[in-house]
Structure formats: C-alpha cells, structure tokens
Amino acid sequence: MDPIEPFLKLSRISKSFVSDDGETTPVIDNVSMDVLVGEFVVFLGPSGCGKTTLMRIVGGLESSNDGEVLLSGEKVTGPDRKKGMVFQAYTSFPWLTVLDNIRFGTKYRNDIGKMEKEMVADHYLQLVGLKEFSNYYVNRISGGMRQRVAIARTLAANPDVLLMDEPFGALDAQTREFLQGQLLEINKRERKTTIFVTHDVDESIVLADRIFIFSARPASVIEIIQVSQHITSERDISVKETQSFFKLRNHIRDLMRDQARRTQELAEQEIIHGVEGGRV
Questions:
Q1: What does the alpha-carbon distance between residue 145 and residue 139 come to, in Å, rounded to a whole number?
Q2: Is it true that the peptide bond before 218 is cis, omega within 30 degrees of 0?
Q3: Bridge partner residues of 164 (DSSP)
C-alpha cells in the first residue's frame, strides 16, 4: 500500500440505537476520516457523545447503520486479529504470569514460529518495563502494571491497528502520566497505527498526531487538529509546561465546554421527555 494512501478509511458512518419501546436515539452522525499508516489519532469529546461507539465500529464490535470502514482496502465486517483492543477495564488473565499473558498475544500468530514467539513476548515485556515482574501473577501487580501487560499482549499479537478505549481512565493521575510517557516511547519505536479514545484534553495533546474533536451526541467531527502545527518540539510529558501547550489546551477546552453544555441540555430534555412519556 502506498504510504500516502489512507490505511484506515471511515466513510459516512452513522449509527442509531433503538430502545425496547422502539424509540430511536442517533449516536453518530455522518462521520468520515482517513488515517495514515503509523498515525496516532485521538477521538476527543464529551462523555456519552458516541466516540467509543465509533471506535467499536472500527474494531468490528458494532455495526453502523450507514457507511463503511475500510482497513487496508478491505471492509471491516467483524472483530479479528488485525484490530487489537485495549480497554479501560483490566483485561489480563489472573491465572497467568505477566510473561504468559504477553505470550498469549502470540498464540494465534501463524506468521512466526515458536522461537520467534518467545522473542516477541520478551521484546514487549522489556518494552513496557516489566522484565523484573515477568514471573508475577497479574493479580499481584498494580493496575498501571496490568494495563502495561494488556498493551504488551495486544502489541505482541501484531495487529494492523491498535484501538484504545480510555485505557488510563481508571488510574490515578501520577500513574496515568507515567503511562502516557511510556505510550509515547512505545509509539516512537513501533509506529503502530492507533486510535485512542479519551475525554482528557491534556492526554490528547500529549499523545496525538491528530485530534478529532467530536460534538455532543450524535457525534460529528467539529474540528481536526494537527498537533505538530501547534507544538513543534519533541513530544514528551514535559511539553505540558510549554506556552504552546497551554494555548492549544485552552482552545480545545473552549470547544469542549460548549459540547459539554450541549450534552447537559440534551440530558435534561431526555429526562423531561421521559417524565412526560411516563417512562421515569
């Protein structure tokens, strides 16, 4: 595939949910985007706007009502090994050690042999900084470490695209910042095409090549930010102390405040409608 061609293409994606009583709720409204090979894209928007649903459609875990997703030119019709997912909830296997969890990522790979699988598992064990914990069971390590295990296991499976749904959302601020730094370092080395869902503005600026800012539900793209046009220095956690970071953060926060207001208004309207309709 030509590197300047879209590696991942979303075309006119729309999605609605239908309740048990037949009421339709639009969640995503006509979203299109192209993602290049090795690009780190962040979906940023208010809670409940539909950004996670859009990521799940990319991963084949949800289907859209309209539009299509193409990965390497092939239509996404369901989940498979080409799409690796890391969720907010810890998804490691507690009956396995740290290393065995990462080894599990190579289990269904047919492109490499047994010895190479061991090398791959060891590579990602070291990449996430858990070599000294390799023989620990994951229920004996911290939540931040467990997320590192989940990331390493997913990368070991060699997916074409990495999908991350607020993977640091349940962590304390210090651990979250540490893992943001680790993910930056991993991305510099691996250049894995990544979609990262968050509602944290600082996190989006630190990590992203491009930020897609979504409206209140139903989600539509209200602005696309090429972060390198605003922050030209080498990206690491220290970028949070720069004037360019503050300026971009304030701009994004203004956009987010408007969408959060719309989200609140929508919720209030739904409550009133529910009471009038006898559902609350």
A1: 10
A2: yes
A3: 86, 196
In the DSSP assignment, the letter for residue 215 is P
The token pair that represents 162 in the structure block: 């990495």
Q: How far apart are CA 102 and CA 134, in angstroms?
A: 9
- Of 15, 14, 8, 12, give the one whose Cα is nearest residue 74: 8
Q: Which amino acid is at 265?
A: E
CATH architecture of 1-82+165-185+192-280: 3-Layer(aba) Sandwich (3.40)
With vertex at residue 218, the alpha carbon angle to CA 87 and CA 7, rounded to the nearest 5 degrees, is 55
Record the pTM: 0.90
* pLDDT tens digit sequence for 155-214: 999 999 999 999 998 888 999 999 999 999 999 888 999 999 998 999 999 999 999 999
Q: Please report, for the chain, the start and end positions of each structural domain, with discontinuous segments joined by +.
A: 1-82+165-185+192-280, 90-158
pLDDT tens digits, one per residue of 235-260: 888 899 999 999 999 999 999 998 88
- Measured between alpha carbons, how far is 132 from 125 in angstroms, rounded to an integer? 9
